[in-house]
């Protein structure tokens, strides 16, 4: 099949537009993150099972989550992030709840089944503390912006209250980003 120069130019233009659109979608889906911030360790007060550890919050997979034990709806459970060096921290982003919607109709939407965090206390390595009330929205990042840039070597989130799930008391957090 023979193509003239005008057709080839149109195809190239369309492909470049598609490539630009794909790049834009990747940026929007992944969200902003700071590759300079390296996490040394993640430790949690509890986990529902070995499949729901605190490390799931930094794996960039919305199909995984940290799920703590269900005693008293996870009240005062915590998750701590230690960084490889002192960082400048402006904001924390969280995808609240277990954001995975399972393909099986028997399992279904895990977001509604598990409890979600309503409020947390954020504690930094210098013992400064901030209180954050999260919304009960579905599967999108929520952002806490510090009043000024903070220097810290660790961040600990303490659960204070939850939005109750339909079947499970255990609260879940799918993703956490530090910017």
Question: Would you mind describing this structure in some detail?
Answer:
With 179 residues, this protein is an alpha+beta fold. The protein has two domains: 1-30; 34-178, Jelly Rolls, CATH 2.60.120. Helix content is 17%, strand content 41%. It has two helices and seven strands. It has helices spanning 5-30, 110-113, and strands at residues 39-44, 66-67, 78-96, 115-124, 129-133, 141-163, 171-178. Strands 1, 2, 3, 4, 5, 6 and 7 form a seven-stranded mixed sheet that branches. A hairpin with a 4-residue loop joins strand 4 and strand 5. The longest helix has 26 residues, at 5-30. The radius of gyration is 20 Å and the shape is globular. The relative contact order is 0.23. The model is unreliable at 21-32 (pLDDT under 50).
């Amino acid at each position: 099949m023979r193509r003239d120069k005008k057709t080839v130019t149109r195809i190239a233009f369309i492909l470049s537009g598609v490539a630009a659109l794909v790049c834009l979608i990747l940026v929007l889906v992944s969200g902003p993150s700071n590759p300079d911030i390296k996490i040394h360790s993640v430790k949690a007060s509890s986990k529902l099972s070995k499949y729901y550890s605190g490390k799931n919050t930094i794996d960039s997979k919305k199909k995984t989550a940290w799920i703590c034990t269900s005693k008293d709806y996870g009240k005062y459970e915590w998750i701590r992030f230690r960084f490889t060096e002192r960082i400048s921290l402006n904001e924390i982003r969280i995808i609240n709840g277990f954001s995975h919607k399972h393909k099986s109709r028997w399992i279904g939407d895990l977001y509604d089944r598990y409890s979600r965090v309503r409020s947390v206390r954020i504690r930094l390595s210098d013992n400064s503390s901030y209180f954050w009330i999260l919304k009960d929205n579905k599967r999108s990042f929520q952002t806490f912006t510090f009043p000024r840039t903070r220097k810290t070597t660790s961040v600990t989130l303490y659960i204070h209250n939850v939005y109750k799930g339909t079947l499970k008391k255990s609260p879940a957090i799918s993703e956490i980003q530090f910017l």
